[in-house]
Amino acid sequence: MRRLRMGMIGGGPGAFIGPVHRIAAEMDREIELVAGAFSSSAEKSRAAGEAYRIDPSRAYADIATMLAEEAKRADPIDFVAITTPNHMHLPAAKAALEAGFAVICDKPATTTLAQAHELAAIVEKAGKPFALTYTYSGYPLVREARARIAAGALGPIRKVVVEYPQGWLSKPDTGKQAEWRGDPARSGVGGCVADIGVHAFHLAEFITGLQVSEILADLGTVVPGRRVDDDCQILLRFANGARGALLASQISVGERNGLTIRIYGEKAGLRWRQEDPNMLWIYHDDGRSELVQAGDPGLGADAVRASRTPGGHPEGYLEAFANLYRDFARQIRGEEGSLVPGIADGLRGMALIEQSVALSKAGAGWTKFTV
């Protein structure tokens, strides 16, 4: 079985997420980065190609050239990875899909819900795999929690609390990563809610298997001069009647990447924390606390498939990201067992962003969540 060939859009000099995609994609040697349009600057794209150590002739000046030239090759790319700021997601994905290439894209899917619906139609027409990198769904114990809830281990779900505090934007924006996230022309209408709030939202729905049906949003802009939200509180109601709360903040001084989820059912509760991802706590209604660890005997098939090392050998963010790429490779090869998020998840994420921003500005109460 040959390695799948990846072309990257974005990920040029100074990028954070582009190199992460490359490392994750190549971790299991099922995929190889061979081409890219890494920057809107031809010079920077060539420099990135050198840094990634690809054939210089495959570091292209722009997206259109990459797609056209790769289509002519006897060994073309098999898919495109989009690692750009949000405003480029739709045009890049549209171009790649219409050129006949599968696409894996950083989240959120687009900058508006209307664009996400447009992209969904393009995906359906193209008939090619499309995936979104909601990274935290790749952790083995997140998948274990999902499987246990599906099997009824917690009983009917009553309460979901998911929080994602960061502190890196507690001061005015400086640097490439902060600047584009604070620019509505590039990030879209959402700031914190679009950057990390959608991760928390997806995680809650992914693990519980439930969909949010109503929301009440309170988004704030704390840092003076910032044009998008940087602190979010969203109350949730799920389709089964469960209630929940989503807290996302990028102005919480001292916090690093504190994504944590707590889920409570009729029979038990659970807690998982991204900064300590190899432990899953289960709290039983008889007072027992059960620690489930990555690599433990008895883990379900999804967790085992997402693990690479025996218990006691920590796996983290890059391995979780790599699991999404491994799942995506399965999709491209027509194999079963993929849990990588797709365009349906993208639509729900964009709906959360747009509705939360609009409802918060209007001071609206409980509102039906619609996609």
TrEMBL record:
This is Putative dehydrogenase. One of its GO terms (molecular function) is nucleotide binding. Residues 5-132 form the Gfo/Idh/MocA-like oxidoreductase N-terminal domain. InterPro entries: Gfo/Idh/MocA-like_OxRdtase_N, Gfo/Idh/MocA_oxidoreduct, GFO_IDH_MocA-like_dom, NAD(P)-bd_dom_sf. SUPFAM superfamilies: Glyceraldehyde-3-phosphate dehydrogenase-like, C-terminal domain, NAD(P)-binding Rossmann-fold domains. Residues 142-270 form the GFO/IDH/MocA-like oxidoreductase domain. PANTHER family: CONSERVED EXPRESSED OXIDOREDUCTASE (EUROFUNG) (PTHR43708), OXIDOREDUCTASE (PTHR43708:SF3).
